[in-house]
Write a structure and sequence with these properties.
By secondary structure, this protein is mainly beta. About 10% of the residues lie in helices and about 50% in strands. The protein has one helix and 16 strands. It has one helix at about 50-60, and strands at about 5-10, 15-20, 25-35, 65-70, 70-75, 75-85, 85-95, 100-110, 115, 120, 125, 130, 135-145, 155-160, 165-170, 170-175. The strands form three sheets. Strands 1, 3, 6, 7, 11, 12, 14 and 15 form an eight-stranded mixed beta sheet that branches. Strands 5-4-8-13-2-16 form a six-stranded mixed beta sheet. A two-stranded antiparallel ribbon has the order 9-10. The longest helix is centred in the first third of the chain and has 14 residues, at about 50-60. The protein starts with a strand and ends in an 11-residue tail after the last strand.
Length: about 180
């Protein structure tokens, strides 16, 4: 993956988003979920840590996350994710620069029976603190549009998955007016 790349967090809201990104830049898509109960996440330390680690591993067998780009459809790679005292699963993929504008279709699917922690079925939590019902399929769209400003004028930070790589921060805008002309492929 070339650096800096553009960090594109995968939305789990079922909406359409328009994202302004620098042209000719590697794309880094990723998203994460963590197991919990109906009212809270489960910390990675404490009495339920062994059960929680098994549930985190089992999530990868129950969840699929796929992106469809203009020229291909790909499943995302998954791995353990740790943040602020919690464990979860993250899915990611890096993609070479692509012609813009472009539309990326994102599908998040949960299948099978939920793993359990101490006999209770787990609930999946997003990084935004929202729960995802078991058995859900969420389809979101990201419309990538070229920015008029050059890449060096974009703000940068360490990406939030591994905290090892510098990434550009794109401009995200939810598309609420469905009458606006969508990008043709």
């Amino acid at each position: 993956m070339d650096h800096p790349s553009v960090e594109l967090k995968l939305p789990l809201d079922g909406g359409t988003h328009r994202v302004e990104i620098p042209q000719e830049t590697t794309l880094f898509f990723w998203g994460a979920v963590a197991p919990g109960t109906t009212d809270r996440l489960i910390p990675k330390e404490g009495d339920a840590v062994g059960s929680q680690q098994r549930a985190v591993q089992e999530i990868s067998n129950c969840v699929s996350w796929r992106i469809s780009l203009p020229d291909e459809s790909k499943p995302l790679l998954d791995e353990r994710y740790r943040k602020q005292g919690y464990n979860g699963r993250a899915w990611w993929i890096a993609r070479d620069p692509m012609s813009l504008p472009a539309t990326v279709e994102i599908e998040f699917n949960i299948s099978r029976d939920p793993p359990t922690i101490d006999g209770a079925p787990i609930v999946l939590w997003t990084e935004q603190g929202e729960t995802i019902p078991w058995g859900s399929t969420i389809e979101s769209t990201v419309e990538l549009v070229p920015s008029t400003k050059p890449a060096p004028q974009f703000q940068t930070r360490q990406e939030q998955l591994w905290n090892r790589h510098t990434v550009y921060i794109p401009s995200w805008n939810p598309v609420t007016d469905k009458s606006y002309p969508h990008i043709e492929q």
